[in-house]
Amino acid sequence: MTREKRLIPYKVLEVMETVKEKIPEGIELVKAPAVWEKSNYGEGVVVAVIDTGIDKEHPDLKERIIGGKDFTNTGDFQDDNGHGTHVCGTILASINKVGVVGVAPKASILALKALNGQGQGEIDWINGALEYAINWQGPNEETVSVISLSLGGPPDEAEHKLIQRALKKDILVVCAAGNSGDGRHDTDELDYPGAYPEVVEVGAVDLSRNLADFSNTNDEIDLVAPGVDILSTYPGNKYARLSGTSMATPHVSGAAALLKVIAEQDFGRKLTEAELYAQLVKSTEDLGISKKAQGNGLLNLTIADQRAEKSIKITIESENLKLPSKSVVMEY
């Protein structure tokens, strides 16, 4: 069996030199801006991205980098591919009057380069990055809350055990489902680590909320997010539109950062991994398609509040019903 992981195949649709600051369509679709104030924009949450690195000088990203490390033996976690920079931008590109804005624009990135410029990485590189993320501690005793993995390959026992260790340390692991879909919801396509039962496996929809034809389907899909024609950061201070479940995954990783802040404010304590996962599941909208395709549904960060408001309204209306003081029995 191969000892290599790779980027899940994706498409580069367009590369742009500059972009006037905008909130990308995918960020709007998952309703991130509606919860920014309540979540303090994800501030204080560290997301570890295991990928091709990051453009360390990109204006939308450089203030968000809390640390980084190379595992590909180049000695530098600078992105020489583009994929990692794009993923990071969707998670947390800053609000700074230029470029794009991410889901959680005040969260922090731990950029771990475990894939080379060709998008390939030895399993030992991936596992080294996983172990580093699990054990990492920042300058102010920060720890990783979310690990984001937009890569795939065959299963590996050591990798699986590391992911299980991450969960025991209350780290949510978010993974791309893969882009081997055949357009049918009744067939299984499996890429790992996405297909491990312990991770949050993310499929892709387009900006019209339709399942992407390339999105893997299987029993482990947890939810779907925008993954077609996604605008984000790109190396060289550029921007690009890419498609793939790799692009859906960071929407969920960023959303987890926002939900963690909101829920911990509400509960007055730290969340467990299982509790953070539950918050994600509550923040999904059923698309009316197979569970093997959508899991719990489309990521929607306002849907839980909408359900709560509807429940309160129904309760109030029920209490206001005017019932007769005496029952009338009809005799036949």
Written account of the structure:
This protein has a single domain, classed as Rossmann fold, CATH 3.40.50. It is 30% helix and 21% strand. The longest helix has 23 residues. The C terminus is likely disordered. The strands form 4 sheets. It has a 7-stranded parallel beta sheet with strand order 4-5-3-7-9-10-11, sandwiched between helices. The protein is globular. By secondary structure, it is an alpha/beta fold.
Layout of helices and strands:
Blueprint: E1 4-7, E2 11-16, H1 25-29, H2 36-39, E3 46-51, E4 65-70, H3 83-92, E5 108-113, E6 120-122, H4 123-135, E7 144-149, E8 151-152, H5 157-168, E9 172-176, E10 200-205, E11 221-226, E12 230-234, E13 238-243, H6 245-267, H7 273-282, E14 284-285, H8 291-294, E15 298-299, H9 303-319
Parallel strand pairs: 3-5, 3-7, 4-5, 7-9, 9-10, 10-11
Antiparallel strand pairs: 1-6, 1-8, 2-13, 12-13, 14-15
Helix pairs in contact: 3-6, 4-5, 6-7
Active site: 51, 83, 246
Protein name: Serine protease
Family: Belongs to the peptidase S8 family.
The class by helix and strand makeup works out as alpha/beta
* Number of separate structural domains: 1
Q: Counting H and I runs of at least 4 residues, what is the number of helices? A: 9
* Global mean pLDDT: 92
By CATH, the topology is Rossmann fold
Q: Summary?
A:
The radius of gyration is 21 Å and the shape is globular. A 7-stranded parallel beta sheet has the order 4-5-3-7-9-10-11, with helices on both faces. A 3-stranded antiparallel beta sheet has the order 6-1-8. A 3-stranded antiparallel beta sheet has the order 2-13-12. The chain has helices at about 25-30, 35-40, 85-90, 125-135, 155-170, 245-265, 275-280, 290-295, 305-320; strands spanning about 5, 10-15, 45-50, 65-70, 110-115, 120, 145-150, 150, 170-175, 200-205, 220-225, 230-235, 240-245, 285, 300.
